[in-house]
Amino acid sequence: MTGFITRRLLQSIVVVLLVTVIVFVLLHLLPGGPARAQLGPRATPPAIANFNHQMGYDRSVPVQYWHWLTQLVTGNLGFSVKFNQSVVSLIGERLPKTLVLTVLSTLFALVVAIPLGMVQAVKRNHAADYAITFWAFVFYATPPFFLGVVLIVVFSVYLPILPAEAPQSSSIGVILSQPAGLILPVLTLALVTIAQFSRYMRSSVIENLAEDYVRTARAKGAGERSVLIRHVLRNSLIPVATLLGLSLPTIFSGALITEAVFNFPGMGQLFWTAAQTQDYPIMLGITVLVGVATVIGSLLADLAYAVLDPRVRYA
Amino acid sequence: MTAIPADDAVLSDSPKTRGVFAGPLSAFAENKLAVVGLGIVVAFILFCYVGPLVYHTDQVHIDLSQATLPPSGTHPLGTNEVGYDQLGRLMAGGQSSLEVGVAAALLATVFGTLWGAIAGYAGGFIDSAMMRIVDALLAVPALFLLLFLASIARPTIGLLILVIAFISWLGPARLVRGQALTLRTRDYVTSVRLMGGGPLRAILRHIAPNAIGTVVVNATFQVADAILLVATLSFLGLGIPPPAANWGDMLSNGINYTYDGYWWLIYPPGLAIVLVVVAFNLIGDALRDSFEVRLQKR
Question: From the CA of B261, how many Å to the nearest CA of chain A?
Fold first, then answer.
């Protein structure tokens, strides 16, 4: 097991490096380039050349990459000229808000989706299964921005009980002190996740209910409750654990949309602003950060897989 | 253990056995939700492809004197902000939404399944190298890649399909690889190897077909995801430029008028997306249940 963990850790480092290479190469293929974005369409060629020289953009791509990577390792993600602020401090300001949004909605989604999926599988093809399936499909099928707008129209316009905009503050304390403003964004993000997780949970439980060990457990006289909780639930959580580890970029993408709809000043909104203004350092910084988080999530999912399913052996 | 004879029956070419889809098809037909889903998809295909032959509208020339008209006799669903008939646009937009969704999902599923099955079966260094590529691409948020790809080329339907497939094949690849890891230890795969069957045979005839449940469920989610992704791209301003239409562009344009009360610009395309995506999911769900031979007649 220790060998497996060590090897997985090394693999993860390779993946992180691959991510930095992909992002760096992609960004350097963008047309226009940073000089045009910075100096405007009427900049003279000498001005552009001068800018490129100052910023080091006239050096070869591998050299630029190496320079950026060494800075990255020491915790320097660069400087955003547009915001006149370092990328680390910008992300530091925005990340906690995005974490509040994503962690709350994911926890909420798991707490709702796991029991829902089990109920559906046990009551397969009964009224409860059909009803939950119907709503899961509807929420999964609704584009997140549309879902957000529908929730705003229902809960802020027709029944004015919840604010249509997320709390506007740079302080995390102030945001948490206005939970009413968080309900709609968290719900928007969670409903899609619930729909997806409960589907997988249902599939997984149904699959496990047909396994031989379930018959054995029942034959040994184990109660239905104990069969479901001690045997089926544990085995059924394996694909969900994998899915959770893989869902980080999806959840981040969802957060980007949700933050745009509810004007929530998080990292997603920062990324979107940066994308529109071709603010390379911010885009690179956020992408690498999400990349590292995803790699860690994937690592944990694989470890969970090995721990939970003894049939999987990493020889 | 009924799985082995069932598996042989599925893979045998002998005329005595039923075809791969005979059992699943009858199980599928018994599933009412699946029939509803299929009905919705067929209805939308008729609506989008036969509809314009019956209901002629001009979806190319703008007419600002006819802009944002509420639903009436001449325009059953009103007109949009530049005077296009909304009902006719729903038909035209549906064509590209459906085409992009299905094509991208097929491309992504086939490629992802093969990639995952090969990696999982091969194991060792090949598996590691193949899955590290998947991991790295997965770790870059999809919207970031979309943003980049959409900014270097003017979006067309073909490019949209490629871009969405490029992002979507990673999911099935990982899922199938996970399945292949457990499947390769099963007795029947070992038997194939002992009988002298090559890796290609094991992958194509034993591992991939046994992972079909996962693949089919995932493929329907892929169609759904692709249609949703197109909509999200439109919301981010990266949709196909007008006069070409798709439901996502119509919806995200309509949302600009949320507070003006132009409901006919929001809910028809929104409902169309939801209905079609739900329908594909219902079909996939039923297919999943029907392919799992072991789960029937419990």
Answer: 11
